[in-house]
Design brief:
Layout lengths: L2 H27 L6 H7 L4 H7 L3 H25 L4 H18 L1 H8 L13 H17 L7 H23 L6 H20 L1
Pfam families: TetR_C_33, TetR_N
Protein name: Transcriptional regulator, TetR family
GO molecular function: DNA binding
Length: 199
């Protein structure tokens, strides 16, 4: 491996370490505790080195948001690939969304501003747009007989999102039900909306 490749690899590793340290701090102490100084202390670097990779904390938050959306998109693709009918695909994708929210709680909080003071992060990341597009296209497949307009598909998407995101938010702030009850509510909501789309 040449020196240029080695230098590039070290830069990529340092960048990944900064992001990993930021997430560890958040998991331990919450988003409000995240600072460039704490990240530097965590990885035993000086703060100026952190600034060589990210201009400010918002740059780190943007990259973590991109990371979260990339993981969610990957989960959507896996969930969708398991089923043949758009109804089952859509249900699996929304359940994957639910699972993501709890397996990557801190990233979900950042991506959707749940229970935290959140800076305004770019909402049009390619990964976020690709995940939304998968859901839109699957909803449209279910509605093919009625030839839905983009506005109607968009309305159905927001119906799903508002109910599922609401249920997740209730649970993330500690006011939810038992896991078993949550699964019943989640499936009832998804299946109810899919049935309404088909009617």
């Amino acid at each position: 491996m040449g020196s240029k490749e080695r230098i590039q690899r070290v830069k990529e590793e340092t960048r990944a370490n900064i992001l990993e340290a930021a997430l560890e701090i958040v998991k331990e102490d919450g988003w409000q505790s995240l600072s460039m100084r704490k990240i530097a202390d965590k990885i035993e670097y000086t703060a100026p080195i952190i600034y060589e990779y990210f201009a400010n904390k918002e740059g780190i938050l943007l990259e973590l948001t991109r990371l979260g959306n990339g993981l969610l998109l990957k989960d959507f693709k896996v969930a969708q690939s398991k089923y043949d009918t758009p109804e089952k695909q859509l249900e699996a994708m929304w359940i994957a969304y639910w699972d993501f929210a709890f397996s990557h709680k801190e990233l979900y909080q950042l991506m959707y501003g749940v229970d935290m003071m959140c800076c305004e992060i770019t909402k049009s990341l390619p990964e976020a747009e690709a995940a939304r597009k998968m859901l839109f296209e699957t909803i449209a497949k279910i509605m093919t007989e009625s030839e839905p307009t983009e506005e109607i598909v968009c309305r159905k998407y927001y119906t799903f999102w508002s109910i599922i995101h609401g249920l997740i938010s209730i649970n993330l702030v500690g006011r939810g039900n038992t896991p078993d009850m949550n699964q019943h509510i989640l499936r009832d909501a998804i299946q109810g909306i899919i049935k309404a789309i088909n009617d």
